[in-house]
Amino acid sequence: MVNEKNNVIPLLKYRSIFISDIHLGSKGCQAEQLLDFLKNTRSDYLYLVGDIIDGWRLKNRWYWELVRKFVPITLGEIRVVNEIKHKTVDGSEYLILHGDKFDSIINIAPWLAHLGASAYDLALWLNRRFNQLRLLLGLKYWSLSKYLKLKVKNAVSYINKYEEIVAGYAKKKNLNGVICGHIHHASHRIINGVHYYNDGDWVESCSFMIENFDGSMEILFWKDIAEKYEIINKHKDSVKVLS
């Protein structure tokens, strides 16, 4: 293991890793950061909690909805399921699911969701330009898109309602907690005795959730870890403000 002074990240080992909302194929996908993350982490269990590929960019989105009807599917050592239970070292049981199944309950019409996705894309575009300028000025990454999202009253209301519904779903199953994604908002709350965890996303926050070998759970941000070890990926277009 390389020490911190050598500016090289050590191999980070966890019992379990949970990541979601990578959105491969979208302009906002932080694929280079994800590659660094995968190269430098190991776990006994790795959960991909949905939206690995960006569905809105697929012309044949109906195909993926059709495939979903055939889960669970086993591909070698990979299991594809709609939801699954995870038991931690200390015996706690968590439900793992993406969370998009609750959109209809929160009354999000498909056209409105698509409109929201377009607005979010614009926010991400602004976020990239904003942080390219910050990089040129020697400033740290700061999520403009996250700030804007949390300043919109309807967005905050949606997040709160989503968290309560997902936690309630886990409570009905008599589980200790739930781990999900979907809304691109990494957080941990205790709602009516249920631990609600959202592992965030890889288009703005580069966040992930881990279970340590003692059973404790944490939400971490890869950019913080990368900055700590000075391995932030400076790919060629990171300073091209007008690209």
Main traits of this protein?
single chain; 243 residues; alpha/beta; Purple Acid Phosphatase, chain A, domain 2; five-stranded mixed β-sheet; four-stranded mixed β-sheet; 11 strands; 33% helix; globular; disordered N terminus; disordered C terminus
The coarse silhouette is globular
Q: Do you know the CATH architecture?
A: 4-Layer Sandwich
Can you summarize the main beta sheet? 5 strands, mixed
What is the rounded Rg? 18 Å
What top-tier CATH class fits best? Answer: Alpha Beta
What is the CATH topology classification name? Answer: Purple Acid Phosphatase, chain A, domain 2
Number of strands: 11
State the helicity in percent bands.
25-40%
Describe the structure.
The structure is a single chain. This protein has 6 helices and 11 strands. The protein starts with 11 loop residues before the first strand and ends in a 15-residue tail after the last helix. The protein has a 5-stranded mixed β-sheet, with helices on one face. Mean pLDDT is 79; it is low at 1-6 and 232-243. The chain is an alpha/beta fold. It has one domain (12-228): Purple Acid Phosphatase, chain A, domain 2, CATH 3.60.21.
Strand-helix topology:
Layout: E1 12-19, H1 31-39, E2 41-48, H2 61-68, E3 73-75, E4 78-80, E5 83-87, E6 93-97, H3 110-136, H4 144-151, H5 153-172, E7 177-180, E8 187-191, E9 194-198, E10 207-211, E11 217-221, H6 222-228
Parallel strand pairs: 1-2, 6-7, 7-9
Antiparallel strand pairs: 1-10, 3-4, 5-6, 8-9, 10-11
